[in-house]
Amino acid sequence: MLGHYPVYPANEHNLWDSERIVDLLTSHDHVVAYLNGHNHAGNYGELKGRHFVNFKGMVETPATTAYAIVAVHDDRIEIQGAGREESRTLKIGAVG
Fold it and tell me: Which of 50, 78, 87, 92 is the most exposed place for a label (fewest CB within 10 A)?
């Protein structure tokens, strides 16, 4: 899933009804990750086997880039970060 506003973990930048959205996303086995922006500092959390990735922004750091290339595989999501954005491997497994 992709969205603009973060929903998890708790943060002052999160969508107003983020708890409701998190409940909805974690209630479906086919949802493995929620990717978003908005909070330029970035953030990450995992809940009930779902990954919540808030990509960093570069508005406050115009001399440093921040972007990522995301590749989705059967067993993992590979995020190749550039500039301020870190690289990560997110395991896709049984949820529940």
Answer: 87
